[in-house]
Design a protein that fits this description.
The complex is a heterotrimer of chains A (about 230), B (about 850) and C (about 300).
Chain A: E1 4-17, E2 20-33, E3 37-41, H1 48-55, E4 63-68, E5 71-72, H2 78-88, E6 89-92, H3 104-114, H4 121-130, H5 146-159, E7 164-168, H6 176-192, E8 196-201, H7 204-207, E9 212-217, E10 220-225
Parallel strand pairs in A: 3-8, 3-9, 6-7, 7-8
Antiparallel strand pairs in A: 1-2, 1-4, 4-5, 9-10
Helix pairs in contact in A: 3-5, 4-5, 5-6
Chain B: H1 7-20, H2 22-61, E1 67-70, H3 74-82, E2 86-101, E3 109-114, H4 116-122, E4 127-132, E5 140-143, H5 145-150, E6 161-167, E7 173-186, E8 193-195, H6 197-203, E9 213-219, H7 226-235, E10 243-246, H8 248-284, H9 287-295, H10 300-340, H11 345-348, H12 357-384, H13 387-391, H14 403-415, H15 421-432, H16 434-465, E11 475-479, H17 496-504, E12 508-520, H18 527-539, H19 544-553, E13 559-565, H20 570-576, H21 583-587, E14 591-595, H22 603-606, E15 610-615, E16 618-631, E17 647-650, H23 651-657, E18 661-670, H24 676-688, E19 695-699, H25 700-711, H26 714-743, H27 745-753, H28 758-794, H29 806-832, H30 837-842
Chain C: H1 3-44, H2 59-115, H3 120-150, E1 159-162, H4 163-181, E2 184-188, E3 194-197, H5 199-216, E4 222-229, E5 233-240, H6 272-282, E6 286-291, E7 297-304
Parallel strand pairs in C: 2-4
Antiparallel strand pairs in C: 1-3, 4-5, 5-7, 6-7
Helix pairs in contact in C: 1-2, 2-3, 3-6, 4-5, 5-6
Classes of the chains: A alpha/beta (about 230), B alpha+beta (about 850), C alpha+beta (about 300).
Subcellular location (chain C): Membrane
Catalytic activity (chain C): ATP + protein L-histidine = ADP + protein N-phospho-L-histidine
GO molecular function (chain C): kinase activity
């Protein structure tokens, strides 16, 4: 049995919105095993983004615990969370969120350099080759197509060997074809570099590409299709 | 724990951020450059001014000191020496007057003994060179070459001797052979002979006497307000004849210092506001960017380092450029500024612009501090950005996500039902970020206020500082012959005919002639006795007792004058008199006013007493006036000031009383102030008189021209300063508006898509600009005017009513309105060129 | 000279020395960290750490020596694992080899038995027996392939060639079975699809998909093989009109020995799709299935273009 790299226990997140309390997450118990590719699917407002933010240490829960790689997130301060993200989590966003001033190569190695670590050029080269970006190293994000930008984002997420990649609607801004390409590359890259991927999406087709699909609705997991995907 | 060494990436990111935000950084760079330039110039002007001022004062005074006291008692000396605020004290004793030497029988030179501290410390900076040594033997003297020449001793050198006759403290004339022990040159009393202490001791003078002792004080501080000066004088318990004079230095330094300090403050404020605003906008507009950096794992410390590094680079470049520019400009402009501030090149030598490391250090320090303070808040904001913002799907504008905006929007909606849509939207825009709007208004207002202040001060310089003529008349004409001692030379120049011609000139409104007659005041035990006693105590070295008898017997040896003024002038006399004058009694010649002549007499002492006058040379013709009050107005002295009181009565009384009276002076008031034409007519009238040379006049118009000359290029420089500050404020505005329009690009595109025309959009943008203009003008009109008023009054020596010049105000208003209208229009037009509506709506989703 | 000046100068000098030492220490620490990191990366990658300062009496030397030993231990363990795998492989190939002859003999005897006239009942048993023997044969063959792929003994050799070659061969291999079931087979492709791939294994992967489709498609159905070149991947679709796969089982079908619950009676050992996925992965691609129960299935292999 593989390690559980992500585990949440009774995770709750309530927002106050005027006079109402919005329950973005209402008691979520959820585990992800190492090297698993999990899709969380749900309608917008279902709480799937919130769950992802919690796992990434971007947001703090109202109640409950998040463990990532055996570490409890609730005890960490902002500074520690930043370092945690830098070393353990790679993010991929719908709007790519690349640093506009940095070229492709610098964007990809940014998390590594932020940690003051030596850049493993061979490894980064492999990633870039896999993602077919080797000809775009000097380009600025603004000069790239959406699909290319998202591939840079994947490369960035993988480059720091984070162990877990959180993808928030990575294909949301892309047309079907390049969305599919991006997902395929994400899958291939995760496989190649042995990473765990948690993906949120509202698109069933995209979710189909995962090893496992988790449905979330009104802040609760309604159907966890855990198929014990063999390997 | 050991910190991670991950600075390399920060350096690289800072560099690329600088490269990619050229516009923003250029503005920050310019702001820092301008403020560094301003501060550098202010510091250089300040330091050079104070240095030159010191040199000028040293040279004018012949030594480095802040105050001099005439006569010094042991008690006072102890007090001053134990005063920790006084750096140095030096004593000088006048020990006799040389009256003749072997070669010259009419020498007038004093013998002065200077003690060691005076000679070595206080006087040293004023000397250029010294040869030989300070006298120690009784017959040794130290002189200058000019002094030797004046005494007819040119060509003598050290070791040579000469014979001179001098009068000692007892008044006896002594002839003595002196040896020159040394020579010196420099600034100060060059005719004097510096003598030894032994000479002083034998001279019969004592330093406690006002005629002998000069006690020089050099304070530690270099600024002392008038109040502090008075308090110090008070604390010394001066004797009646004793006096303490402060050099102009200490009093005048303060306003200059405060003025420069104020400018430094406003400059820093403007720069601060701009840097703060730009940085804040840049951070607020990039919330996602900073959130993103945090999701990627950048810590707060690293973000701080990133922004800090950018500011250090831009700031360093700006400061360097500013200092370089300042250095260059200082060479050109500084001399004229320094002269305008009142340094005369004649005395202080050519203006030397000195670059001191302290100036550079201070500039760097101030600007760096401003930059630091200005960027502290924005950096904090960048660090506090929640990484979730970066994860949001839509870019967030403004800093308040969630329900607050909605609630606010609803509230706004309810509130704003009236007015045109365009105006409401413009107002909403400004209200959306009140802090930002306020910052811009304040920063523009700061520039405007300085401009307002400068132009008001400069415009009113003449009015405030001209020592105006009596009763503020435009011209005072005097008959100079009446000042001559020999009555034979007296001529009646300002005759009836002359006066009527004068009045006939069309531009002349009123003529106030002042007539005078010579009188004596015979002794009587009451008022005359009291007056003379006081007079001797105050002004004379000899006791009154010695001369009372002469006065009683020969009052004609103690002449004085009676002054007659016209009926029209009475209200003014009343103004300068401390008691209420009964008009009828005065006009009928029953009462008089006495010129105080600086005596220690109060009105209570004299009012009600009678003063008896006798016509000079006709002592039988006597007349008695009751004293109605005393005045300090020096105008009423008349041509000569006698020992007995100067009596001021109404003109008719003089005409009745004295047979030989004449007009001494006439004040002329023009219909229009500073009327050049009228003045020229009067002057040509005077010139036409055969005795034209015996007239003298004081013209207000000439004084005005004098002031204008003295100001030199000050107005241009003042405008320059205001312009730089205004420029910083406008940079701030430009930056905000362009940034604002850029971040509203989508919103504007949406408005366009639902049918807002270009005209309407421009109207909205211009309305916004107008609100900014109105806001900053409002602040200028309130706070700016208040500050200007305070500054004005602190320099308002002549108590001229406060008035803001209309021209500059109108110019300023038009200028600011034009800028506020033009900038958003240009920014809007630039935006349009970026692409179609759809492109702009969509364009926002990208990176 | 004034005492205070002397003290100040001394203090300044001391501060300078201290600052210099701090800087040096910092530099040393950074160097130490960098060197350590480099060597640990090497160990992770199974390379030999660079022996910086191993013979020096320094902290780095101490740590590097330890790292070297760690690397040795890891290498030994890997060696053991490799050996174990090798043994396993040999075992499997031995099993397959050793079972080959018995199965072949069995089949021969069954053939002989079938040629005799047997009563209807016996004949049925013999036929069943023969079927089971075929399955056994297939199973062993597949297991050998699998073990070779799994243990990495067989290397994927990517070469630039037209994908149509591999696809064509795979299609021709299933033609007999398809004809037997009366299935329509068609290939939709235009142009050449030159991309780096391993011809033999790609053929195997496509064949497995086709084999699978033939198995699960009722007679009279059709199978379409479609090639499509995308921006990044070239897709090989195998679309059938079979019974389809329920959404919740779609992720599972690619796992080893998985068989659709209701088709246990059919031939197959649940290994083909697993192999296909493995082959795609090893070539930097992936597989995907799109299907709805009762509406056929669309299996697709994605192979990277570059």
């Amino acid at each position: 049995m593989k390690n559980q790299i992500v585990k949440t226990e009774g995770l709750k997140k309530y927002y106050r919105l005027g006079e109402n309390t919005v329950k973005a997450l209402d008691g979520v118990d959820f585990t992800v095993k190492e090297r698993e590719f999990v899709a969380i699917i749900g309608r917008s407002g279902s709480g799937k983004s919130t769950l992802l933010h919690m796992i990434g240490g971007l947001d703090t829960p109202t109640a409950g615990e998040v463990y990532v790689d055996g570490r409890k997130l609730s005890g960490m301060n902002r500074e520690q969370l930043a370092v945690f993200r830098r070393r353990k989590v790679g993010f991929i966003f719908q709007n790519y969120n690349l640093v506009p001033d940095l070229n492709v190569y610098d964007n990809v190695v940014l998390p590594v350099e932020l940690d003051g670590k030596r850049v493993d050029r061979k490894y980064v080269g492999e990633i870039l080759e896999l993602l077919q970006l080797e000809t775009k190293l000097e380009a600025l994000p603004g000069m790239l197509s959406g699909g290319q930008q998202q591939r840079v984002a994947i490369a960035r997420a993988v480059a720091a060997k984070p162990g877990i990649i959180l993808a928030d609607e990575p294909t949301g801004n892309l047309d079907t074809a390049s969305g599919h390409d991006v997902m395929g590359l994400l899958k291939v890259a995760a496989k190649q570099f042995q990473q765990t991927v948690i993906l949120i999406t509202h698109d069933r087709d995209i979710a189909q590409m995962a090893d496992r699909i988790v449905h979330i609705e009104d802040g609760r997991i309604v159907k966890a299709g855990d198929f014990h995907a063999g390997k | 724990m050991l910190a991670n060494n991950n600075r390399g990436i920060i350096r690289r990111m800072a560099k690329s951020a600088l490269k990619n935000n050229r516009g923003r950084n250029l503005i920050v760079f310019l702001a820092i450059l301008l403020s560094a330039f301003m501060l550098f110039s202010i510091f250089t002007v300040g330091i050079t001014y104070f240095k030159m001022n010191r040199i000028q004062n040293i040279r004018l005074n012949g030594g480095e000191y802040d105050a001099v006291m005439y006569g010094i008692t042991e008690e006072q000396r102890e007090k001053c020496e134990s005063d920790s605020e006084i750096k140095t004290t030096g004593t000088v004793a006048v020990s006799g007057y040389i009256e003749s030497t072997g070669n010259d029988s009419t020498v007038d030179a004093s013998c002065i003994w200077a003690d060691e501290t005076y000679w070595n410390e206080i006087m040293a900076p004023a000397r250029d060179w010294v040869k030989g040594k300070y006298p120690s033997a009784e017959n040794e003297v130290m002189m200058t070459e000019e002094g030797l020449q004046a005494a007819g001793l040119e060509g003598l050198g050290i070791g040579d001797t000469f014979t001179a006759g001098y009068r000692d403290g007892e008044g006896s004339l002594i002839t003595k052979e002196f040896t020159i022990s040394g020579l010196w040159d420099g600034y100060g009393v060059k005719s004097a002979l510096y003598v030894s202490e032994a000479f002083y001791e034998a001279s019969g003078y004592d330093i406690s006497e006002v005629r002998c002792g000069r006690y020089y004080l050099d304070f530690d501080r270099w600024i002392m307000t008038a109040d502090e000066q008075n308090a110090f004088t008070e604390s010394l318990n001066l004797g009646k004849q004793q006096a303490l004079y402060f050099t102009g230095n200490m009093g005048y330094s303060l306003p200059v210092f405060l003025g420069l300090g104020g400018l430094i403050f406003v400059t820093c404020l403007c720069a601060y506001l701009l840097i703060y605003n730009i940085m804040y906008l840049s951070v607020a507009g990039n919330v996602r960017y900073y959130g993103l950096l945090q999701t990627v794992g950048m810590t707060g410390t690293q973000i701080r380092a990133l922004l800090g590094r950018q500011m250090t680079l831009v700031g360093g470049a700006g400061i360097t450029a500013g200092i370089l520019l300042g250095s260059a400009v200082s060479f050109v402009l500084l001399p004229s500024v320094i002269r305008a501030l009142g340094i005369r090149t004649g005395t202080a030598g050519a203006v030397e612009v000195t670059f001191q490391p302290a100036v550079i250090l201070l500039t760097v320090l101030f600007v760096a501090f401003t930059v630091y303070v200005g960027s502290r808040k924005p950096v904090k904001l960048a660090v506090s950005v929640s990484p979730v913002e970066a994860a949001g799907y839509r870019p967030v504008y403004g800093g308040n996500p969630g329900g607050r905006t909605k609630a606010k929007a609803a509230k706004r909606h309810r509130r704003g039902r009236r007015g045109s849509v365009v105006f409401r939207m413009a107002l909403d825009q400004i209200r959306k970020d009140k802090k930002k709007s306020a910052v811009i208004m304040v920063s523009m207002a700061a520039g405007l206020s300085v401009f307002l202040c400068m132009s008001t001060i400069l415009e009113s310089q003449a009015a405030r500082t001209i020592v105006t003529n009596h009763m503020n008349t435009d011209l005072v004409i005097s008959n100079d012959t009446l000042k001559k001692e020999d009555p034979a030379e007296h001529k009646d120049l300002i005759t009836e005919d002359f006066l009527s011609e004068l009045t006939g000139i069309s531009g002349v409104e009123t003529v106030y002639p002042m007539i005078y007659g010579q009188i004596t005041v015979p002794w009587e035990p009451d008022f005359a006795e009291m007056w003379m006693k006081e007079f001797y105590a105050m002004w004379m070295d000899i006791p009154y007792e010695n001369e009372r008898e002469e006065y009683q017997q020969y009052p004609e040896n103690f002449g004085s004058v009676i002054v007659g003024i016209s009926r029209e002038e009475l209200p003014y006399l009343q103004e300068v008199t401390d008691m209420e004058i009964d008009t009828d009694a005065f006009l009928s010649g029953e009462t008089c006013v006495i010129y105080r002549n600086g005596l220690d007499l109060t009105s209570e002492d004299v009012v009600g007493k009678n003063v008896t006058c006798a016509e000079y040379g006709h002592s039988e013709n006597q007349r008695t006036f009751q004293i109605a009050g005393m005045t300090n107005e020096g105008y009423y002295i008349g041509p000569v000031l006698g020992f007995p009181p100067t009596v001021i009565v109404c003109a008719t009384a003089v005409e009745e009383f004295v047979s030989d009276y004449s007009v001494f002076q006439a004040g002329v008031k023009y219909t229009r102030e500073y009327d050049e034409e009228t003045e020229n007519e009067i002057l040509s009238l005077i010139q036409s008189s055969p005795d034209a040379r015996d007239f003298s006049w004081e013209s207000k118009l000439e004084s005005l021209r004098e002031v204008e000359r003295a100001q030199g290029s000050m107005p241009q420089i003042g405008a320059g300063i205001a312009l730089i500050l205004a420029l910083i404020g406008i940079l701030n505005y430009v930056n905000t508006v362009t940034g604002n329009i850029q971040s509203r690009q989508m919103e504007l595109a949406v408005l366009e898509s639902i049918g807002m025309t270009d005209r309407q959009r421009n109207r909205m943008l211009v309305t916004e600009g107008m609100i900014f203009a109105a806001g900053s003008l409002f602040i200028t009109g309130t706070v700016g005017v208040a500050v200007t008023y305070a500054v004005y009054q602190s320099m308002n020596y002549m108590l001229v009513p406060f008035e803001v010049p209309a021209g500059p105000v109108v110019g300023m208003t038009v200028f600011i309105i034009a800028v506020c209208a033009a900038v958003p229009l240009l920014a809007g037009a630039k935006m349009i060129r970026k692409g179609s509506v759809v492109e702009r709506i969509r364009g926002m989703s990208g990176a | 000279m004034d005492w205070t000046v002397i003290i100040a100068v001394c203090a300044l000098a001391a501060a300078a020395v201290q600052t210099w030492r701090m800087r040096k220490l910092k530099k040393d620490v950074y160097e130490f960290t960098n060197s350590l990191e480099r060597n640990m990366d090497a160990v992770i990658l199974g390379e030999k750490p660079e022996p910086a300062g191993e013979t020096e009496d320094s902290l780095l030397g101490r740590v590097n020596e330890k790292l070297d030993r760690t690397a040795h231990v890891l290498e030994r363990k890997e060696q053991e694992i490799r050996e174990n795998k090798e043994e396993m492989k040999e075992l499997i190939s031995d099993i397959s080899h050793q079972t080959k002859t018995p199965i072949a003999n069995q089949k021969i005897y069954l053939e002989i038995l079938k040629s005799r006239s047997l009563p209807e009942e016996e004949r049925k048993f013999v036929e069943k027996l023969e079927h089971q023997a075929d399955r056994l044969d297939f199973l062993f063959k597949s297991m050998v392939k699998m073990s070779r792929l799994e243990t990495g003994v067989i290397q994927i050799r990517k070469e630039n060639s037209d994908l149509m070659d591999a696809v064509g061969r795979a299609v021709s291999a299933v033609v007999p079975a398809a004809e037997k079931k009366k299935l329509r087979l068609s290939v939709e492709a235009d142009g050449r699809y030159v991309l780096p791939h391993d011809r033999k294994w790609t053929e195997e992967a496509v064949y497995n998909l086709l084999d699978n489709s033939v198995k699960y498609t009722e007679s009279g159905g059709s199978i379409v093989i479609r090639l499509k070149k995308g921006e990044i991947f070239t897709e090989i679709h195998v679309e059938d009109t079979g019974k389809g796969i329920a959404v919740e089982r779609q992720a599972q079908i690619f796992t080893r020995f998985y068989r659709e619950p209701e088709v246990h009676d059919k031939e197959g050992v649940g290994i083909g799709l697993y192999l296909t996925r493995k082959i795609a992965w090893l070539q930097g691609g992936y597989v995907e299935v799109r299907s709805e129960e009762g509406k056929g299935a669309d299996f697709c292999i994605f192979l990277p273009n570059g």
